[in-house]
Each structure stands twice: as C-alpha cells, then as structure tokens.
Amino acid sequence: MVAALTVVAPPATAQPSWEMGTPKLPTPWTHLVSPDNALPEYPRPQLTRKDWQNLNGVWEFAGAKAGEAPPFGKTLGERILVPYPAESALSGIERHEDYMWYRRTVSVPADWQVGSRNRLKLNFGAVDYLASVYVNGKKVAEHKGGYGAFSADITDALKPGAQQEIVVGVEDRADKTWQPVGKQRIVPDRGIFYEGASGIWQTVWMEPVAAAHVENLGMVPDIDTNTLGLTVQTSGDASKLTAEVIVRDGGAVVSRKRSPAGGEIKVDVPQAKLWSPDNPFLYDLDVVLRDASDRPVDRVSSYFGMREIGKVEGADGKLRMTLNGKILFQMSTLDQGYWPDGIYTAPTDAALAFDLEQHKELGFNTVRKHIKTEPDRWYYHADRLGLLVWQDMPAMRTGGRPPVDAQQQFETELHEIVEEKKNWTSVIGWVPFNEGWGEWNREATGRIADEVKAQDPARLVNAHSGVNCCDSLGDSGKGDVLDWHAYVGPGTPVPDENRASMDGEHGGFGLEIDGHMWFGEGHAYEMTPDQATLTRRYVENQTDVLKAAQRCGIGGAIYTQITDVEHEVNGFFTYDRQVKKMDFAQVKAINEQIIRESDGSGTGAPDPGPGTPGTDGVHAYKFDEGTGTTAADAVGDADATLTGAEWAPGVQGNAVSFNGNGFADTGSALVNSASSYSASAWVKLDVADGAFQTVVSQDTGSNSAFFLQYSGQDQRWAMSFVGLRALSPEKPEVGRWYHLTGVRDAKAGTVSLYVDGKKVAAQSACLAPESAGPTVIGRGQYGGNQVDFLRGDVDDVRLFDRALTDQEIASLATRP
C-alpha cells in the first residue's frame, strides 16, 4: 500500500519589517523613537499652515547602482525609518550606499480638495546629496545639495485612487567627490572627521496650497524705525494679490496692515520689544493672501524678533560687535550637531532642543553651528531660548584645491543656505570658509564674503574662520570680522579699521568617561585626569579670554565644544549626552563674568618700561670656548649647559653645531615672556625640509612661550607662538649664515621677525604666553615634550628685556 502524501504549501514570504539598529551609545531619547513617532512636529515654524501630513516613518529602501532605472511599482527589500540617515542606527540600515532608492505610498485626504480647488506640495527638509523625486512614475523634482530644502508641486502627477507612489533616488558619494560634506567621511578618521550621513535626513511632508499662495516670507527688522520690512513671496501674479498682515504680542494685536503683495511692506511694530539673550521676545505674525476679489486664498502664520546686529568702536578705540546698538561679547561654543544614534539627525525634537538649552544653563549667549546646518526647528529653539547663531557653510573635503565646477556648486549651495536661513532671529552671521578647507583663492574668498553681505546686509559676515590656521590661503581683508583659531588659546586677533575680531575656536580640554566613548578612548587638545582638573583648566582658559577681550579687543570667543563627538572627548557632555563633564556652576560663573566685563572699556596693555639700554643684551652667548660642555653667558650669570653639541667655526670665532638631538640649556628663564623682549642669533641650517627646527625658545612645561625657528610646515624662518607665526617670505638656503631676530612688543601687541637686519613679517599678538622655564638654544617644547631639534650651527645668541628698534637690529646683523 502506498502511503498518501500530504503536500504542504510553503508559507508566504513575510514582508521585511523595520528594526532599529543597536547604537554604540544610546542617548536619553533613543528609546523614544518609533515608526509612529519619528520627528512628528511641524517642521517649518516660520511658515505654518493648518493642513499638512507628516511623511516621516517607515519607507521601503534598497541600495542601487549608478544609472539604475527607478523601481516603479516594485517592493524594495529593506525598510528604513525616515528621516534618519542610512548610516545611523535609528534608520535601521546602518551602512553607507553611494546610490539608494526610497519608496512608499501615500493617500491624499479628500477634504484637501486637491485638483479641484488646491494644489499639492511635497516638501523635503534636506536630502544628502543629489535627490531625484518621482510620483507615480513621473519625475517631479531634482535637487543638488545636501543641506537645502526643496519642494515639488505634485498635483499633475497624481492619479485616481487612494494610493500614490513616491520614489526618491539619492546619490551621495560624499568625500569621494568635491561636494560640500562638512565633517562627514565615508571612512571616519578617529580624529576630527566623522561618520557619513546619506539620504533623507530631515522631515518629509505634504500640504495642500491654493494656486496662488505664499512661497516664503522675508523679514528684516528695523529697531530705529520700529518697523518690520516684510516681503511676501508668492506663486502666481503678485500684482493681483493683496497681503493682510497682523502682528500680535501674545493675544493682543499690535499692528495690522493691508498692502499689495509685491515689494517690501513696512509693518509697524510700535514701542518694539527688543529680542536679546536676556529677553528673547518674539512677535507672532499672520499673513492672509487675498485675490483681486478680496477672497482669502492662503493663510500662513509666522513669528519674528526685533533686533539689530552691528559694530561700534568701544571706549578703548577698538571695533566690537553689537546687539541692538550695544556692545555684547559673544560667548559661544562650537556646536557640531552630531548624535551617536542619529548621526546628523537628532532622535527627537526634545533632543534637538537639549544642546541649546544647555548652552543657556552654562552661561553662553552664542552658538557657532560648525560646518553643518540643522532642521528649521533647531533655529526656532535658538530663537525662543535667546541664543545668537553663527552659521557656517558646510565645507568641501580637505586636501587639495577644488576644480572650477565644484567651486561654482559650492557658491550655489552657500547662497541657497543664506536665502533659506536669513529670517531666523537667532542667526546673526555667516561663515563661508573654515581654516581654508575647500578654499581655492584668497581673492575669491573676499568676493564671496562681499556677495553674501550683499545678499543679506542685515547680518555680519566672517569671511574665513581660522584665517591664521591650517589650509588657509591668507587674509582677504573682507567681511565684518577677523577670526583666529588657537588651541588651547584663546586666539587674540586685534580689530582693524573695518572689522571686529573674535576667537573662532579655542580650548578643547578633554576627559575620558568610561562607558560613554564612541571608540572606547579619545583625544583632545589637552587631556585632563578628572572633572575637577577639567573645570579648573576651563576656568583658567576663560580667564585668558577675558584678558583677551579687555586688552586685545576680541568681541567673541568660541569654545570647543558643547559635546564630545566620536573620538573627540572635549565636550561639556559625553557624546551620548548622559554625563556632565564639568562643574556647570563654575562654567556659568566665568562665562557670565566675561560677558559682563567685556564691554569695550578695555584695560590696555601694561607699560613694560624701557628695559636695559644697548645692544649687548641682558644675556649673551658668544660660543668662543671651542671646547667643553659649557657656554659662558658673556653678559649675565646664566651659563648654558651643552648636550649633544659639537664645536664648529662661527661667524666670528667659534659656534656650536647640533645634529638633531642636542641643545644648550641656560637653566633660567632669561626673558619675561608676558612682557616685551627680543631674541637674536646667527644660524646656519644643514637641512631645510618639512621638519621644524628651533634656534631659541623658552620652556613653559607644556609648549614653548616662543620659538625663533625654521618652520618646516612653511619652509620659512619664523618667530612663533603656538598657533601664530611671523614668517619670512623666502625659504632659507642650506649652509648659509643668517641673522635672525624675534621681537615681542607688548605695548604694540605684536610679534615680529627680522632676517639679516630687515623686518620681514609681523603678526598681531596682544597677549603672550607666560613662562618660568629655562631659555633653551637648539630645541623647542610642545605638549610637554622636547621637540624641533636644530640641525645646524648657532652663534652669538643674545636676549633682551625690551623690544629692539629697527636700527638696533640692523646693527646686530652686521657681520664683524
């Protein structure tokens, strides 16, 4: 007998479902994220409408290849939670794709009357980088740029029926190209470059609008006339439209006006309440758009603050930045806007607001949004909390100079960002370039600064943050602000005739917190062992900021940074926002003191006095012994001990020769490095390559107070402080004797370099490092280590307790 066979049909293939990845470091908000709760808030606070539908949530997802046909009508194999970047744990994908597809279906509410009375707009907060949008197989939009918002009228692509298919194709090759990426890298470097953030990373939503509707509002407050300059940008023929404008203070109407929709409308704001960090007052604004028959066709709500940003000369004669006509020191952090769970996208709106709220708790009044942008709600939170915002342009990648097409695209995206964000009350300035990253031409940098100023005259322009640093091509002289970076700093640029000045980055003190680090360990510009030391070093550093504000005239300072980011552990909070790393009460106290006491009255530099006359110096080393391990001080009593040195012929008599591992230690601090001094020497190099070589320096225990040196990075002679170099114009020749003099003039606030008796460079340096360590010949000190050993010969080293004159230096450089 043959047994009967029972055939069991295989189960239907289950549809893939979304699952959150496992963040390396969960934040306090990670567990609140779900498909039904993915950033549900209205995403555009300055242009709100009653009817809208949030399209955040689970979308279909698939990696793709270049040139691949859109997957219309096809179910994709993975699920992603929008609007979290594909690389993030919150997205559920947790990987980078150069090319990718998103797909979902939507239904349009019948009561929106789309097609009969209204149009339908599909809005994207931001998609990184090149986005192509299709509705029911029809291409409705293409947008290039990872930081700008864009919209599409999709009415004509709709089809009968309940479901409409949306497909979004994205290309994001990040730092493989010259596209603006900020600090994103496909391969993070365990340094200052981080995880990428590809695809849809801000809210997607749709809304019904009339054929004639408000596209945008332009708002420029004028506190002198108590008016708001309002521009109502509309679709359709503005000449046939009228705008009714209502300004409210809470529930009370303070102003109402009707005007043609075209052109600027001067809206009265009587007895205006001014917006400031201490009183961030915001007016509500309603705009009703009416057609030729006075029928309302669109109604939007918004808000604005009455405030003015400017510059004024302080009582000390130095130009400073103002808010509402009064000098206000801008005490800021560097805010990079990264999250361990969402990377570019905060997990929730409460998380988005958290970092800004903590700025206020810490006594800051300003935020530098560092080479990244944020969703509109971030700027709304800054507006309501009362924080000034410097907005950076996201940089192109580092390394090399961009080609012409990339330059043009960078400028296009910069102007798009300015146009989109120039209504925020909190945004007071623009930063096109940072440390020369992606910069291609100093003159172009100046031109771009001028063009941004012309685009938005109501705000300041910082043409180049960190113009003294790194890949910078030098100071264009343009913009409203001169900005230096110095770690640990602070930077001390002195205002010039047309520009205020600020420290654009400083600090960066680090502390590792076990269990709260992205890589399990981290780095900073200066590491500390515990919270007490970290707090102490912060207060000490900020005390230097106060001194720089009073003596040098800096009008703002930006501390690195509000939170740890990946390998950087120099935040007030750990990367996961779980641990406070400093004593916040002490931080707030010193920050508020700086703001309170940096009012432009200044204290000026102390008079260093005349010093010792003559050109013999207060200490001098002729090196004429020709033997032994001691070089006599010909003027004072600080004989130098020679280590790893050999005797050699000098400019006159003998000299000492070093071969990259020796030095002469005087055993004493021979100059007051906080005051005026000069150091001179004859020097001859054996090698002039990419390594630094120091002729004369003075130890501090950390970094030399000054370096009279050969700068290997620049391959020039230099008189340097950490983060500052006065450089010779030409590379020195190997085997030739040069006479070098470095001069620190405390009264003038400068550091200068003379080569062969002629001044070749000078830098503003109103403050100088203090030191009690020994003056050393033949090496420097950096990070507490002995570095930059000389490979060459030295003769006739002299130290002076004053700034020498040009004539005196010229006489010293005359060969015997």
From TrEMBL:
InterPro entries: Beta-gal/glucu_dom_sf, ConA-like_dom_sf, Galactose-bd-like_sf, GH, GH2_Domain-Containing, Glyco_hydro_2_N, Ig-like_fold, Ig-like_GH2. GO terms for molecular function: hydrolase activity, hydrolyzing O-glycosyl compounds. One of its GO terms (biological process) is carbohydrate metabolic process. Pfam families: Glyco_hydro_2, Glyco_hydro_2_N, Laminin_G_3. Keywords: Disulfide bond, Glycosidase, Hydrolase, Signal. Residues 595-623 are annotated as: Disordered. Residues 675-807 form the LamG-like jellyroll fold domain. The keyword Endoplasmic reticulum does not apply. It comes from the Bacteria. Belongs to the glycosyl hydrolase 2 family. This is Glycoside hydrolase. It comes from Amycolatopsis albispora.
